[in-house]
Amino acid sequence: MFGLGKKDTTVFVVVIILALCAPFILNPFPGNSSLAQFNAGYPDLMQRFVIFGIFAIGFNLLFGLTGYLSFGHAAFLGAGSYAAVWMFKLLSMNVIPAILLSMIVAGLFAVVIGYVSLRRSGIYFSILTLAFAQMSYNLAYSVLTPITNGETGLQITLDDPRILGSSATADGGIPVTNLFGLEMRHFTTVDIGAWSFNFSVGYYLCAAIMILAFYVAVRIFRSPFGMMLRAIKSNQQRLYYTGLNARPYTLAVFVISGMYAGLAGGLLASMDPLAGPERMQWTASGEVVLMTILGGAGTLIGPVLGAGFIKYFENIFSKINDGVLHSWFAFLPDGLENFIVTLVHPFVGKGWHLTLGLMFMLVVIFLPGGLVEGGQRIARALRRGKSEDNGAANKASHEPAE
Amino acid sequence: MGILEVKDVNKRFGGLKALSEVNLSVAENTVHAIIGPNGAGKSTLLNCLVGKLIPDTGSVLFDGQSVLGRKPFEINQMGISRVFQTPEIFGDLTVMENMMIPLFARRDGAYRLHAFRSVESEGELRSRAEAMLEDVKMLDKRHMHSASMSRGDKRRLEMAMCLVQDPRLLLLDEPTAGMARADTNNTIDLLKEIKEKRDITMAIIEHDMHVVFSLADRITVLAQGTPLVEDSPENIKGHPKVREAYLGEAA
């Protein structure tokens, strides 16, 4: 289906279902239960899941296929955000031109940075990309203030021209981002029993674009181009002596990857029209590396899972404060309760980075293939368990299929 | 004139004269062996032919065109394929994928962005890859992860990858180095078969006299960066200069 193999179609359909049903899947606990704070089905958060999913899918095209570890991908995300906000300021509040421009600007950025950085490989490539990203960050912070509005960040204001739209709404407010009139922030809440599910226009736009981005990535993975990229990772010497020039291939994938990051940046700005230099900072570049490795570099679905995982931690674990902990352990005697809360305290709330760091270490040490490898191991264990239960006859019928 | 003409090539590494006044002519459709003791400049010469090194002076012509200053991938596109001393294959890829890459290189040139076509849909190239694998008796291994194969199989795969491009000149850098006797004999048989089946010119750098004398039509003996003699295998065997410089040293 869709020009994909059987296995890829399955993965693709799973991603579509996950994306479309996210408002349900991420809201498993009834609103009045004590577990409700683990729900993540808010439009804001769901948008972040899919937007960073796009960012990680793009990063994985570069890192997963060629092994070139870019440590400056946030520069493209930031450039995309600035481009989108400028589009909102100058042209109109429609998100389509903004997203298109953000991809073009990030792509041009990637051509320049990639052309220089790809002259080196390995750690030198990583350092070069990091240097470029930090340069962009510092420029955005200081000398480029007329374009980036420096520390404050770029925002839309009432006196922006917006030549195809209006500078202000009829009642004098700042207009909101929309898709041909459909407001991004608009959402419908459906109450079913104790649950309330949010369906947001912005989220579904992001989800649709993520599905498209994922599809393009799968096609690239299975194309001759993707195979060449894996060959570059495997043995560049052999590639050169086979009559192929690796440079245009790596530059092409670097630019594609940069455009994915620009798309993510444009979407971030479309959901919330502001852009600040901190989006280009090295921590943001590091985050996408973590997402990809945590989920499983070089796999199709891994980066999406990794992005969701990290964003979930960032937004949910960070909200568990001492008050919440005390309410959880209230059933314990006072002394013990305080002791346990003190013990757990560094791992939650502001300390969520510690938990994430530990999780990351565990995954890298025990599951080098990331969450995807974890899933595969569980699936294999289940299959083995099942075939043992059903006896040898069933097992025999299973084997030829594999 | 031969398909490969090396004229007055000199190469120095600092104070070391690696090649001095090397002249070599490889005739079309022959197997030309280059032998010599360690440090004779065999590998330096080979690296000058494939674009890895550029000689200080002299010229290297392939089919009348200079290869000097061209990059390895450009030289391959001219029709020269190279087999390395330790097999260089794409270890992360399957055997079949390893075969597809040289075919794409031959069909599409040094660079072409086929981002939306699937590898599976390339029926014609796949059947050519399969035919080649059949020739080297590796068709049953086509789905194998190539890094997990034995050294002998890797060598066969590397040769198949070179041959599937229909090169006009195949350069082999000690193709049997480090191989067991049985694997060496298999490689010799494979090369003999290739020689009979196709119009191909081969230049072999080799240590193993057994391999050289069972394959070569012409032999050039290199010593201290200069060609000592060039003759047929029969004459080389009895040549006093060669015995002195090479065989004598080995004994």
TrEMBL record, chain A:
It is a multi-pass membrane protein. Its main location: membrane. The chain crosses the membrane at residues 12-29, 49-71, 91-116, 123-144, 201-221, 248-268, 288-313, 325-348, 354-374. This is Amino acid/amide ABC transporter membrane protein 2, HAAT family (TC 3.A.1.4.-). It comes from Alloyangia pacifica. It is found in: Cell membrane. One of its GO terms (molecular function) is branched-chain amino acid transmembrane transporter activity. InterPro entries: ABC_transp_permease, LivM-like. It holds the Pfam family BPD_transp_2. GO terms for cellular component: plasma membrane. Keywords: Cell membrane, Membrane, Transmembrane, Transmembrane helix.
